[in-house]
Amino acid sequence: MLKRKAVSTLISTAFIVLMTIMAMALTLTIGMPAINKAKEASVINEALQNMKVIDNTIREVASEGAGSLRSPQIKVSGGEYRVNQKANSLDFTYTIKYGLFEPGTFVKDGNLLLMSGVNAKASTYDLDNDGSNELVLENEILRVGLLSNGTSSSQVSINTSGIIKLLNIKESGANVTLTDSSVTLDDFADSSSGTGYTELVIPGDHLSKAEAVVHMSTTTMTYDIVYTLQSGADFLIIKIQNAYYN
């Protein structure tokens, strides 16, 4: 009886240890994704707050005139902040792994744009087969062919009515040709044409957004047009920036 009881105690101890180890493994398996998702959410929320602080600081300094200074305090726990000079923006990039946002998510909060996905592409090739290359912005849904002409050192005549040359809908293969994509500022008819050049912001694949800029100088004003196609979007964003009277 004593011998049998000793064996029973040993087996019981081993069983308790095994159950404890299994319970720990189960906790780690179930708990770690939730913990990592919470960490990702914390980094995103931190970045949103940082962007708002920076945006407010820039606006305060701009309103106070030359010589005004600010030293904003921000905390960075993850991701990458980059000044996008061509698109005149501050971009925050962070890779998420736990489904915090669906691909193609687009949220506008004041001056902030939140986008998710990395299926955008910006490249240069002859999209419409007319013998000349276009600046092509592309994602899972659309291809947008924009005028490719001129350089910063060799500017050319540009009429904004012909900047968007072609929209290609991937699923159906249908092509849409715009007869007029003019940009006119402050009702000045001559602001839609002048001299300038076009360029991609960041050429490459696996981008969160594909962008191109048209730099325009007209009789009355100078300005930039930024065309943005985000990953997963079925629409093109067009923004005017750096506009001033000549």
Low-confidence stretches: none
Strand content is 35-45%
Distance between the amino and carboxyl termini: 104 Å
Q: Major β-sheet, in short?
A: 6 strands, antiparallel
The helix/strand class is alpha+beta
SSE order, one letter for each helix or strand: HEEEEEEEEEEEEEEE
Report the count of strand segments: 15
Q: What's the gyration radius in Å?
A: 27 Å
Give the spatial strand order of the biggest sheet: 10-9-7-6-5-12
Helix content: 25-40%
Overall shape: it is flat
The overall average pLDDT, rounded, is 88
Assembly state of the chains shown: single chain
Count every helix, treating DSSP H or I runs of 4 or more residues as helices: 1
Number of individual domains: 2
Protein model, in words:
With about 250 residues, the chain is an alpha+beta fold. The protein has two domains: about 35-115, no CATH class; about 120-245, no CATH class. The chain is about 25% helix and about 35% strand. The chain is built from one helix and 15 strands, in the order αβββββββββββββββ. The protein has one helix at about 1-65; strands at about 80-85, 90-95, 105-110, 110-115, 120-125, 135-140, 140-145, 155-160, 165-170, 175, 195-200, 205, 210-215, 220-230, 235-245. A six-stranded antiparallel β-sheet has the order 10-9-7-6-5-12, with no helix packed on it. The protein has a five-stranded antiparallel β-sheet with strand order 8-11-13-14-15, with no helix packed on it. A two-stranded antiparallel sheet has the order 1-2. β6 and β7 (about 140-145) form a beta hairpin. The longest helix is centred in the first third of the chain and has 63 residues, at about 1-65. The protein is flat and about 95 Å long. The N and C termini lie far apart (about 105 Å).
